[in-house]
Amino acid sequence: MRAVLWQGTNHIGVETVPDPTLLLQSDVIVRVTSTAICGSDLHLLDGYIPSMEKGDILGHEFMGEIVEVGRDVSKVKVGDRVIMPFNLACGVCEPCQRGLFSACDNSNPNHRMAEALYGATSASGLFGYSHLFGGYAGGQAQFVRVPFADVSCFPIQSDLRDDQVLFLTDIFPTGYQAAENCGIQPGRDVVAVFGAGPVGQFAARSAQMLGAAHVIVIDRVPERLALAEAAGMQTINYEREDVLVALHEATGGRGPDHTIDAVGLEAHGHGPGALLDTAEQKLRLSFDRITALRWAILSCAKGGTVSMPGVYGGLVDKLPLGSAFGKGLTLKMGQTHTHRYVRPLLSRIEGGEIDPSFVITHRAPLSQAPDLYKTFRDKKDGCIKVVLDPWA
Questions:
Q1: 226-263 pLDDT, tens per residue?
Q2: DSSP-derived 3-state class of residue 278
Q3: In this structure, how many other beta carbons lie within 10 angstroms of the beta carbon of residue 334?
Q4: pTM for this one?
Q5: Which of 179, 188, 189, 234, by CA, is between 20 and 30 Å from 49?
Q6: What single DSSP character describes residue 186?
Q7: Contacts with 332 (C-beta within 8 Å, 6 or more apart), sequence order
Q8: Residue 51, class by beta-carbon neighbours within 10 Å (0-12 exposed, 13-18 middle, 19+ buried)?
């Protein structure tokens, strides 16, 4: 089969590799019909997530048709059209039973590696996202092995197009959980979203769905800000305005009630903090550039919530924790518990409340993935979201 492979920092290729096979009887094999490049894939391209190996298959946003099932699989069958959350969960451990699927105890066989880096506990396994998170092959390929199939596979029984349901595998639930974590008081609260990329767009629209009185989106890329404006949001271009002053003025001096950092570890910005972040990251003295997170904390109103769907890789520097403490902020973060959002958000799509395909700007065959990774990373050609066809 053809697949998108990580071949080194800043080096992506498309090559022919062996087809996947069932490794456990709880697995299925899926023929991938649509797959996407996620913003967090760029952290792999740029070499900021450790433990990638040459030849690893990328991709954690994908869907398709089941073509083979293990004998222990009982809830899905050959021929089912399915979507799969980007994170893997066993469904039976204590975190999974509590709905905390991204904290699954059993889906990351390399948990000791993650624990050595991050501490005493680890996150779940992830498709196509380094050996730190299990070393699972990703779905930017013609076929993919899906472990824990009875938990991982969600059949799509409606006639919705692939591009209307594909993003239920990651960015729509990720944006929704980020907004839900804010505990928005309908009709009253102001929410500021840092980053107008795909997750930021879904976080902003989710804040609207949850009743936010006003949503402000901060970025520097005109077409991304325009997409937010088209949905009725106020926008701030941080290269043209002082973002903290602008948010202060937009909220009558109070600050946004909740802020969402939808950027993560490769934030751009200006000022001494941003320059120091860049230097430390290049020297590998720090994993993360946290300008967006600093702004999210500094701008948030007293007693507010800072929600962090953006991915962080490790240690950070110059975090204004004193500001967060002084204002009594609540910080919420972590990988999305995708499984618990798939069906509720699918109902919203089926009901016509939202069409997630609004975010797609580029469609291409798998063979164009190497160029489109860089187009997406460098924010060229108006690129906001790329969907790949493995069979074109």
A1: 999 999 999 999 999 999 999 999 999 999 999 999 99
A2: helix
A3: 13
A4: 0.94
A5: 179
A6: T
A7: 181, 182, 305, 306, 307, 308
A8: middle
- d(CA 346, CA 331) in angstroms, rounded, equals 28
- For residue 313, pLDDT over 80 is answered with no
For the chain, what is the radius of gyration of the CA atoms?
A: 20
21, amino acid identity: T
Residues with Cβ within 8 Å of 45's Cβ and at least 6 positions away in sequence, in order, are: 6, 9, 10, 12, 373, 374, 377
Distance CA 32, CA 323 (A): 46
Half-sphere exposure of 205 (CA within 13 A, CB side): 25
Tokens at 165, concatenated: 């349901």
Residue-wise pLDDT tens digits, 247-306 = 999 999 999 999 999 998 778 877 777 777 777 777 777 777 889 999 999 999 999 999
What is 233-262 written as a DSSP string?
-EEEETTTS-HHHHHHHHTTTS--SEEEE-
* Look-up of token digits 């060229």: 380
